[in-house]
Amino acid sequence: MSKPFVSPQAVANRREVLRGLAVGCGVTGVSLLGFLGVSARAGKPHLRPPGAIDEHAFLAACIKCGQCVQVCPVTAITLADISDGFGSGVPYIDARAQACDFSCDATQCVLACPTGALTHNIDRKEQVRMGLAELAHPDTCLARQGRGWKGPAREASFTGRHRWTDIDRWKPVRVTQYSYELPLCDLCVRECPIEGAIRLAPMSDDPSDARRTPQVAQACVGCGLCEMICPTEEASIVVRPRIEDRHRAHSTHI
Q: β-strand 91-93 against 77-79: which pairing, if any?
């Protein structure tokens, strides 16, 4: 029995249809990946640069131009990669890797933003609050153990930078270039750029008890310096992004 004749044009048309279906499936798959990427991160919001407006409005206003990244004096701002789905290309800060340099008065990235996603035209208290520090791992905190710290705050391979006024007020240097010799670790308090944001409180009424616990106050802006400078692995103290902070009290006792 002979096979039915199929014209070359019909074969070509069929191939075009199949190719179109494949492309459509691919686009749909990528879109779904993007959606899933955002959904998966719904409970893990990023720490946004200072001056960021409300998260949903921020995502809508940001055009992913990278201007804030270019002007940051310590390159603290990073653009999210494709794993963030629809949030790919949106700026955020990984405080453990590089804290926001609040010594620049938190204006350079704001002034560089062309859309108002980062702005000074909102309530000052909310504008500067990127997040709130929290003692996430109290059992590893050296101060709570009554222990000191000697040497650089971070491992030799760490590339994060900080400004020390006794070295150069205007030039950030690598954290590994500065050494400490502390009878009691107080790095989170010592290097905090905001007065009254964090302090060490006694853990008992015994005068001979050297142990102290970090307490974070409402003045904390969530710049992440305490998280970056914490010498324990992983950091005992971390910064929760403002979107999480809004579901908690505006001050915390840790």
A: antiparallel
Q: Which fold has domain 55-122?
A: Alpha-Beta Plaits (3.30.70)
Strand (E) or helix (H) holding 180:
strand 179-182
CA–CA dist 59, 57 (Å, integer): 6
Residue with tokens 């710290």: 149
Nearest-CA neighbor of 118 among 130, 128, 109? 109
Q: 225 Cβ partners below 8 Å, 6+ apart?
A: 95, 99, 100, 102, 162, 191, 192, 193
Residue 84, classed as helix, strand or coil, is helix
Instruction: Please check the confidence at residue 139 and state whether its pLDDT lies above 90.
Output: yes
Q: What's phi and psi for 213, nearest 5 deg?
A: -125, 135
Decide: 189 and 198 in contact? Cβ < 8 Å.
yes
CB 121 within 8 A of CB 111: no
CA-based end-to-end distance of the chain: 85
Range in 12-26, 74-88, 120-134, 179-193 with the lowest mean pLDDT: 12-26
CB 242 within 8 A of CB 118: no
pLDDT reported for residue 137: 97
The pTM of the whole model exceeds 0.85: no
Q: Are 51 and 106 in contact (CB under 8 A)?
A: yes
CATH 3.30.70 residue ranges for the chain: 55-122
Both tokens assigned to 14: 């069929």
